[in-house]
């Protein structure tokens, strides 16, 4: 009897070790409003705060949060910060708020949050909490109309690799880990209590006349696009620096290997001579020689993070392009018509040279700027084969232009 | 201190109070333009004095951000079993034009007995310090309580908050939906004194701006429903906005049409009158 009971208890305890994977993060409307308010107040400075909630099965519920004060560069910040956190948690526990830390939130500027500090913070949290999540909010993108909330966590394979501190190329190839596998984005759900739902239904203005958020319809995206491009260019510079480091490493590695080979060859020749002379052969290895010292491989983490950032900027630029270039759609339909006209004119050429010349020149002068505008913008919304379309249009124009 | 407040139909606050030394009911109505002082028909001939510079309080308006309502509702849902209502502190700032901008709030544990109120003052000060560390611009501007109307206990709590800040705003949020709707009202209090004696604290309602601009930005669809499965992407948000814009344009179009039709009818009748005459 005791045996079976002990076994079943052990079985139960063993079964509890396997946690269901995190599927969705459920945020309360209150937490969203708090995060938005905090990030917007201090924008463009980057701020952070703590998330509180419950870990239930495959859902991580975030029910409350509190902001962290901006820390000046001071020696006492560690103690102050910890004190503040303890006080807030204690006070919130007194009013029945879930006292359980489930992660933290931070604001970001146009999505450049993939840094080594983020990974360090994740690992710090992971030591104490089994499941934690980081919520990233982008106030500048929210001004464009999107609700830029993202819930992130590190993938398990990356965490194991990072902890073992073994970030060399072969290990990564072995585990089949590339830059997309570092961060995992978790879908976000919003929930509200029934009381607040009743209040909001009540307080919603009846007609759209009194609502004031139509500035989100402003489609001028050039400042947003400009800043994205600036950040993208900076990232490319960083990436080229990393690549130079790798190139230098590989060059020194090959040079070292060549040196090793030549030294080995010399040793072998020496040994042959000594054997002929009847002496002891020298060893073929010499660990004290500096050319045998292994050169450390530069870590790949930074280049992975840069790749993540670049992907983020590209996605944002693509999304922005889709939103804003619908008004150029008409060019896509107008341009083939114009080309048809040109073909017709080319056939007329055979019949009347003078008037056709004049007409053609006039048409070209009128149509060339339109086609440049349309070709530049009309590709937007079509898909990935932009460059081919552009090339086609320009090719036609130059063909007819040069065909006199 | 007894406190009663009531309203007449012309939307002008009237306060009824009973002087313990006389049995006649006196009433006094105050509007923006005129102030009527009614002398007491009582045995003692003391002139009733109203609180200092009521002009200052009559211009006060309050503006509430949606986060405050969310916070209050969440605290009410989490209140301890024996508490009937929750109270707490309001944080914000006073704008240059006199409007009180209520931006944040936190609940303060309290106990209410039949004639006494106990407030955890240390908790209140600790939370205030923590909040000021994050944002030093948000100071105390008043306090809130759930429930409809102002009760006797509220007067005592209001007295406490008067010591913290010169003219606190009292916000009531009716979480019980007693009138069939969730009423949110704001009050300021003015002291009534008879000579040297404090008679009553009158709670005068002030206009409250409940425009939820931040809630509109997030989207009322997300904040209204009890569960949303997916956050809307850029395009979906824009679609919702376009639909609203379309409704707005249709409304305005209809309005202009109706106006034009009524103008035509009016002109027709006018000229027909002239012709007949």
UniProtKB/TrEMBL annotation, chain A:
Alphabetically ordered keywords of this record: Initiation factor, Protein biosynthesis
Stated name of the protein: Eukaryotic translation initiation factor 3 subunit H
Organism listed in the record: Citrus sinensis (Sweet orange)
TrEMBL record, chain B:
One GO biological process term: translational initiation
InterPro entries (UniProt xref): eIF3f, JAMM/MPN+_dom, MPN
One annotated GO molecular function: translation initiation factor activity
GO cellular component: eukaryotic translation initiation factor 3 complex, eIF3m
CDD domains registered for this protein in UniProt: MPN_eIF3f
Pfam families named among the record's database cross-references: JAB (PF01398)
PROSITE patterns for the chain: MPN
Every MPN domain range: 62-193
PANTHER family: EUKARYOTIC TRANSLATION INITIATION FACTOR 3 SUBUNIT F, EUKARYOTIC TRANSLATION INITIATION FACTOR 3 SUBUNIT F-RELATED
Name used for this protein in its record: MPN domain-containing protein
């Amino acid at each position: 009897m005791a045996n079976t009971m002990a076994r079943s208890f052990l079985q139960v305890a063993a079964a509890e070790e396997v946690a269901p994977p995190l599927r969705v993060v459920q945020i309360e409307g209150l937490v969203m409003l708090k995060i938005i308010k905090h990030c917007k107040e201090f924008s463009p400075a980057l701020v952070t705060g703590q998330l509180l909630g419950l870990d239930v099965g495959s859902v991580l519920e975030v029910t409350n949060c509190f902001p962290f004060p901006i820390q000046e560069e001071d020696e006492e910040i560690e103690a102050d910060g910890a004190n503040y956190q303890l006080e807030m948690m204690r006070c919130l526990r007194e009013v029945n708020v879930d006292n359980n830390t489930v992660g933290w939130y931070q604001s970001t500027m146009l999505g450049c949050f993939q840094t080594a500090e983020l990974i360090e913070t994740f690992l710090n949290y992971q030591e104490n909490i089994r499941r934690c999540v980081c919520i990233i909010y982008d106030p500048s993108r929210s001004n464009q109309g999107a609700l830029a909330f993202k819930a992130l966590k590190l993938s398990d394979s990356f965490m194991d690799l990072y902890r073992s501190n073994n970030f060399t190329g072969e290990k990564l190839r072995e585990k089949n880990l590339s830059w997309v596998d570092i961060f995992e984005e978790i879908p976000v759900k919003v929930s509200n209590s029934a009381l607040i739902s009743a209040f909001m239904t009540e307080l919603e203005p009846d007609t759209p006349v009194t609502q004031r958020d139509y500035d989100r319809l402003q489609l001028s995206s050039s400042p947003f696009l400009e800043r994205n491009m600036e950040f993208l260019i900076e990232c490319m510079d960083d990436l080229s620096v990393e690549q130079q480091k790798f190139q230098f490493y590989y060059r020194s590695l090959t040079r070292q290997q060549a040196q090793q080979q030549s030294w080995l060859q010399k040793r072998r020749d020496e040994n042959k001579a000594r054997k002929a002379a009847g002496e002891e052969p020298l060893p073929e290895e010499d660990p004290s020689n500096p050319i045998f010292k292994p050169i450390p491989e530069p870590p790949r983490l930074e280049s992975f993070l840069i790749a993540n950032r670049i992907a983020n900027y590209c996605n944002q630029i693509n999304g922005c392009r889709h939103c804003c270039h619908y008004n150029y759609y008409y060019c896509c339909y107008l341009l083939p018509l114009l080309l048809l006209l040109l073909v017709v004119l080319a056939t007329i050429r055979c019949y009347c040279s003078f008037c056709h010349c004049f007409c053609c020149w006039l048409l070209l002068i009128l149509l060339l700027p339109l086609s440049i505008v349309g070709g530049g913008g009309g590709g937007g919304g079509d898909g990935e084969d932009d460059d081919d379309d552009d090339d086609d249009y320009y090719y036609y124009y130059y063909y007819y232009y040069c065909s006199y | 201190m007894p406190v009663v407040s009531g309203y007449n139909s012309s939307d002008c606050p009237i306060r009824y109070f009973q002087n313990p030394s006389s049995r006649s009911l006196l009433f006094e109505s105050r509007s923006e333009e005129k102030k009527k002082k009614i002398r007491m028909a009582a045995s003692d001939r003391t002139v009733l004095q109203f609180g200092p510079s009521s002009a200052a309080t009559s211009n006060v308006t309050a503006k509430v951000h949606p986060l405050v309502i969310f916070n209050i509702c969440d605290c009410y849902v989490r209140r301890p079993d024996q508490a009937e209502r929750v109270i707490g502190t309001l944080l914000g700032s006073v704008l240059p034009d006199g409007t009180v901008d209520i931006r944040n709030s936190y609940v303060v544990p309290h106990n209410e007995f039949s004639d006494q109120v106990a407030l955890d003052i240390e908790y209140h000060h600790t939370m205030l310090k923590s909040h000021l560390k994050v944002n030093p611009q948000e100071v105390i501007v008043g306090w809130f309580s759930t429930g409809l109307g102002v009760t006797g206990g509220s007067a005592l709590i209001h007295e406490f908050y008067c010591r913290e800040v010169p003219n606190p705003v009292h916000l009531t949020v009716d979480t019980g939906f007693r009138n069939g709707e969730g009423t949110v009202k704001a009050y300021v209090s003015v002291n009534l004194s008879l000579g040297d004696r404090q008679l009553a604290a009158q709670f005068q309602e002030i206009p409250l701006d409940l425009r939820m601009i931040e809630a509109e930005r997030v989207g009322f669809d997300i904040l209204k429903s009890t569960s949303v499965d997916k956050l809307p992407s850029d395009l979906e948000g824009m679609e919702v906005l376009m639909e609203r814009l379309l409704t707005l344009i249709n409304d305005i179009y209809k309005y202009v049409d109706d106006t034009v039709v009524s103008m035509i009818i009016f002109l027709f009748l006018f000229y027909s009158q002239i012709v007949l005459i």
